[in-house]
Specification:
By secondary structure, this protein is α/β, with parallel strands linked by helices. The protein has one domain: Alpha-Beta Complex (Spore Coat Polysaccharide Biosynthesis Protein SpsA, Chain A). It has seven helices and nine strands, in the order E-E-E-H-E-H-E-H-E-H-E-E-H-H-E-H. The protein has a seven-stranded mixed sheet with strand order 5-4-1-6-8-7-9, with helices on both faces. A two-stranded antiparallel ribbon has the order 2-3. Helix 3 runs antiparallel to helix 5. The N terminus is likely disordered.
Length: about 190
């Protein structure tokens, strides 16, 4: 059960806008795991949390549309990385917080999501394993859009550096926490099957 600090609603952004370079150019969110596209696992997990489910995708919009309330894409066609998708999501989010997740982590669970949501406030919240921030598993107050815009205009393209600059709250996870496993290479997808 969510804690008392959990917002009754938040916007959710699923990042599926990459080139899929480690997957040989395949669109990761649409690759199947256990008989379903990876994006379907995330959709089913977060759908009860929001009435504002956003997917950042730069191709295959017709296939992603059924998993989202709205789709966003990068301003630039050069695939400038996940920070571009975060920027696009923050621009359209309808709630005070944006829960940010990658499309290729189907083992996430409600307990971990609610741990993030329970920390909702004025600061960003990010998962951390050891000294490494996991910026694509975070909760971002939408009021930070102006800060992101300023960082973007200054040339920042790293979600990790941007989030670190905000002095976020962190939630520590075990180094080998299986819930954070990204299926982002052919080997990890096959091994996970």
């Amino acid at each position: 059960m969510p804690g008392t600090n959990t917002p009754s609603t938040c916007s959710v952004l699923l990042l599926a806008g990459g080139r899929g370079q480690r997957m040989g150019g395949a669109d990761k969110g649409l690759l199947e795991w256990q008989g379903r596209p990876l994006i379907a696992w995330l959709h089913d997990l977060v759908r009860p949390l929001t009435d504002d489910l956003i997917i950042s995708c730069n191709r295959n919009s017709d296939r992603y549309a059924c998993f989202a309330d709205r789709l966003v894409h990068d301003d630039d066609k050069d695939f400038q990385g996940p920070l571009a998708g975060i920027r696009a999501g923050l621009r359209v989010a309808q709630h005070a917080h944006l829960l940010l997740l990658p499309c290729d982590a189907p083992r996430l669970d409600n307990a971990l999501l609610h741990t993030l949501l329970d920390q909702a406030g004025e600061r960003a919240v990010v998962l951390r394993r050891g000294d490494y921030y996991e910026p694509l598993f975070s909760l971002i107050p939408c009021a930070l859009l102006a800060d992101l815009e300023q960082a973007w205009q200054a040339g920042e393209r790293s979600p990790q550096r941007w989030l670190r600059s905000l002095d976020p709250l962190t939630i520590d996870c075990a180094l080998a926490d299986p819930r954070l496993a990204n299926f982002n290479t052919p080997d990890t997808l096959v091994t996970a099957r």
